[in-house]
Amino acid sequence: MLIQWIMAPGRKGSYCYCCLWWPLTISLMASVLQGVHSQIVLVNDTVSGYVGTDVILHCNFINPLPSVKITQVTWQKSTNGTKQNVAIFNPAMGVSILPPYKERVVFQNPSIRDGTIHMNRLQLDDEGAYICEFATFPTGNRESQLNLTVLAKPINQIEKTSKQLTANHMSKEKDVVATCISANGKPPSTITWETKLKGEPESEEVKNENGTVTVISRYKLVPTREAHKQLLTCVINYQTERDTKNTTLSVQYKPQVTIEGFDGNWYVKRSEVKLTCIADANPPPYSYQWRISNGSLPESAEKNNNTLFFRGPVTYSLSGKYICEARNSIGSQTGEVEVNVTEFPFTPTPTEQTDKRESSMFPAAIIGGAVGGAFLVLAVSVILFVLLRRRHHTFKGDYNTKKHVYGNGYSKAGVAQHPPMAQSLQYPEDSDDEKKPGPVGSSSYEEEEDEEGIDGHKVGTKYDDESKRPYFTVEEGDRCGYGEDRTLGFQYEPEDLPDSLVPQNDGSFISKKEWYV
Asked: Model's pTM, two decimal places?
C-alpha cells in the first residue's frame, strides 16, 4: 500500500492523510494469516515397529478454508537432505505407489483430508524421516514430518567351547568355557551370566552394515573337577524382554578313589565280606588294579572289575592295607584302606539310640538336679534352724561363770551363807541339760561318804530328800515347804536385773556376751 506524506501550507512538519486507512489494513491481514495458520497437517511424531511387522503412518489435513482447494496428497522420505516420493493421491488421477514401496504401501482411506498409509513387512531400510504434504490452491503446500524407527529383535544362542576342557591343578590358565551371542539386534542387547562358578566374562559389540549390532560374551575360568556338570546361564536383556540360555560344563579329570566295604568289624569266621573301589572320574575308569602293601593278595580274594570278594569265612590272613588303582585316559589315582581282623565281633551302640538316650536323659537330669537342689536347700534350712534354736536355749560357756540369783537354799534369814566350793565338780552322766554340782566338800561324786546335815539328816551321794539339794529354784522351794523357815539369799526382783544379764532355767543368770558365744 502506498502512503503519501503531504506538507500542509503554513504549517511546519507533515501530515498523513492516508494513515486513517492503516488500522483497517492490519485487521484484514490478521484475518488472512489466521486462516492460513489454522490449516495444519496432523501426523504422529514418532512411529516404531519391528522388522517384518506392519505400521500405520497417520496424516490428516485440519480446518481447510472453503476457498482453499486441495489438489494432491504426497508421502515422501527424506534421505540425506533429498526427498524420495513414496505414495501419491490425486483426486482426479488416483493413487500412485512408487518403488521400492509398490508392494508394501497402501492408502487406508484416500481423500482430500486423509492421507494415512499402511506400510507392510517393515525393513531396516524403511527407517527414516517421512513427510506428509497437502498441495492446496491458492495458499500453497502444507506439510508435517514424522520419524519411523525400525527395531530388530536379536537372535540369541549359547555355544560350548570346542576345546576339550581338562582339569590340571598345576595350571592357573583360564579357558573360554562358553560363548553367548545376541546377533543382529537393534538396539543392541546386554548380556550377563548367572553361575556358581568362579570365572569372568569378556564382551564385545560388532556393528553390522544394516544398522544392527551383534553382542558376544565369552565366559572364562580355570577348568577344575568341581566345575564338571555345573550349570552356566547366559542372560540376554533386550528392551523389556529377558531371555536365558543354559549349558552344562564338561571337564575331564583323573580318578578320585575311595574304598568302601570295611566297617571296622571284620572278625574271625565272619562271612561274605568284600571291598569296592569307588572312582570319581571323567571319562569313567577303564581299569582297576588291586594289591596289598605287605605282600600278595590272600588266596580267598577274587577280583571282579572294581570289587574284591573274599570267599569263605574271615581269617587273620585278611588283615593288611589294601590298595586300589583306577585309571582313565587322563591319568590314574590310588585309594587305600587298612583292614584289621578281630577274634570276636564288636557291636557298637547305634548312633540313633545313643542320641535318643542322651536326649531323653538331658531333661531328666535337669529335673533331677532341680529337685535335688530344692531338697538340699530345705535340709540346710532345717539344720540351721535347729542349731540356732539350741544356741538360743543352751549355755555354751563355763559353768563356774554362772551367777545364781537365789543362793544355795541353806542360808538363814538375813544372812547370805554359802558352803565352800568343792575342789572339783562332778556331773551326772545322764543329764542332758545343764550340769549340777555334786555335794560340797566331796572329791568324787560316786565315792562321797554320808555327812550329817544341819537338821541331823544324812547327805549322801544321792539326795533322798529333795530339800537337801544344794541348789534349787524358788518354785521348787515353795513346793517343798521351805518358804517359812528358810530364806533365800541374794534375792532380786525381775525388774532389778541388769539389762546386761540373761536369766537361766535353773535360777542363774549369765551375761549377754557369754550367752551369744
From this structure: 0.55
